[in-house]
Design goal:
Largest sheet: 8 strands, mixed
Number of strands: 13
Helix content: 25-40%
CATH topology of the largest domain: Rossmann fold
Order of helices and strands: EHEHHEEHEHEEHEHHHHHEHEHEHHEE
Structural class: alpha/beta
Shape: elongated
Oligomer: single chain
Number of helices: 15
Distance between the termini: 55 Å
Radius of gyration: 23 Å
CATH class of the largest domain: Alpha Beta
CATH superfamily of the largest domain: NAD(P)-binding Rossmann-like Domain
CATH architecture of the largest domain: 3-Layer(aba) Sandwich
Strand order of the largest sheet: 3-2-1-4-5-6-7-8
Strand content: 5-15%
């Protein structure tokens, strides 16, 4: 029997899910932002995750009216699960979404959560919110499942339909139903987890594993900096071994890798375990921005450059390349650390929304053409629009085409570095 599907939360995760199902059947796409709904109705996706042609070909009723959920019986929840200032899980969006759904869902509805949570959150936090708001009993009047999202913003190869989908349900019958619905659109296949907690745990360790591996690379970069060795050259040499893991140093931000480990460590500490390795990796990655900034300042001092009153351009502000996503960008750590040295920092980004950057981080983005020549440039986010210009763009970015370039991700060809430019890498 075909389910009436709704997707709650139409961001980087929810919209691709809604569009995939919308190509097969009618879908209700809900978001609390009326501006977001208005844009999608006009065929505009500010996240750039969905092509206009795909958006147009999907049958989706976009709405900010929660009562529109009352005609659906398979509700997928894809709202943000951030961390707060104390780096603790913030389930506020998830609980508010559950409360809203509970007030409008009908009997027999299956609610599937895709948001990243710690093991146990669906059953311990979400179900009580649904029951309280609906006045119904879970497992009798409605049912729940969990299917962790695996969307990678900006990745056009690994998409919702081409990534194997992990699903779970509170009982065997619900699990089979959820697997069948997702299986109707996910071409890569379905993996049925034995329980909701297993599926929740699988999600948080996927990104925790990456976080720890990147932390190792970042610590190695700090060691090699002191040894005056190029980290990228070391990794290229080590990478010739067949089983060497291909991780590189860098800023770790975004809504997944920089956040998910804190969900796992929070739950671990609640059950009496102190997760030393995970938290050590998190601290290492959280300190990368400060390391980049202080290393740059030291290099400027070696070059007899004045620090106070100098100008540094930060090239790129989003959390990763070729996306407009500013969530949890760690480039801000570099900016703030440089400003603490009384350095004039000017920031530009080819994709980011200036209004959002100002609202969330208090920074003013400057267009590339309006940048003043700087003493140094931190190439923080290697957007393709910058890479195609290569070294030529520094004729505009640096004073007299000379100065320091800190290429965080080692994307600029070292052997083509112009005379007069001091190249540093993480």
């Amino acid at each position: 029997m075909e389910k009436e599907i709704a997707v709650v939360g139409l961001g980087y995760v929810g919209l691709p899910v809604a569009v995939a199902f919308g190509k097969k059947q009618h879908v209700v796409g809900f978001d609390i932002s009326q501006d977001r709904i208005n844009g999608l109705k006009q065929g505009i996706d500010v996240t750039k995750e969905v092509e206009p042609s795909d958006l147009q070909s999907a049958t989706i009723t976009f709405t900010a009216n929660p009562s529109d959920l009352s005609n659906t019986d398979f509700i997928i929840v894809a709202v943000p699960t951030p961390i707060n200032e104390n780096k603790q899980p913030d389930l506020t969006p998830l609980i508010k979404a559950s409360d809203m759904i509970g007030k409008h869902m009908k009997k027999g509805t299956i609610v599937i959560y895709e948001s990243t949570v710690y093991p146990g959150a669906t059953e311990e936090d979400c179900i009580p919110a649904l029951e309280k708001a609906s006045g119904m009993t879970c497992g009798q009047d409605f049912f729940v499942g969990y299917s962790p999202e695996r969307i990678n913003p900006g990745d056009k190869e690994h998409t919702f339909t081409t990534i194997k989908k992990v699903v779970s349900g509170q009982n065997e019958e619900i699990l089979e139903c959820i697997a069948e619905v997702y299986g109707s659109v996910v071409e890569a296949g379905i993996h049925k987890a034995s329980s909701i907690k297993v599926a929740e745990a699988a999600k948080v360790i996927e990104n925790t594993q990456r976080d720890i591996n990147i932390a190792l690379m970042n610590e190695l970069a700090e060691i090699f900096e002191k040894l005056n060795i190029d980290t990228s050259e070391v990794l290229a040499a080590a990478g010739t071994k067949w089983n060497f893991l291909n991780f590189t140093p860098g800023l770790v931000g975004g809504h997944c890798i920089g956040v998910d480990p804190y969900y796992l460590t929070h739950k671990a500490q609640k059950v009496g375990h102190h997760p030393e390795v995970i938290l050590a990796g998190r601290k290492t990655n959280d300190d990368v921005g400060k390391f980049v900034a202080t290393t740059l300042v030291k290099q400027m001092i070696k070059k007899n450059m004045p620090i106070q009153g100098s100008t540094v351009t930060v090239l790129g502000f989003t959390f990763k390349e070729n996306v407009p996503d500013l969530r949890n960008t760690r480039v801000i750590d570099i900016v703030q650390e440089l400003e603490d040295f009384d350095i004039n920092v000017q920031i530009t980004d080819a994709y980011a929304d200036g209004e959002q950057a100002n609202k969330e981080y208090g920074v003013n983005l400057i267009s590339f053409k309006q940048l003043k020549p700087a003493d140094a440039v931190v190439f923080a986010v290697p957007h393709e629009k910058y890479l195609v210009q290569g070294w030529d763009m520094f004729d505009h970015l640096l004073k007299h085409g000379k100065g320091i370039v800190y290429d965080i991700k080692s994307k600029l060809p070292k052997d083509e570095c112009p005379e007069g430019i001091c190249l540093r890498r993480l």
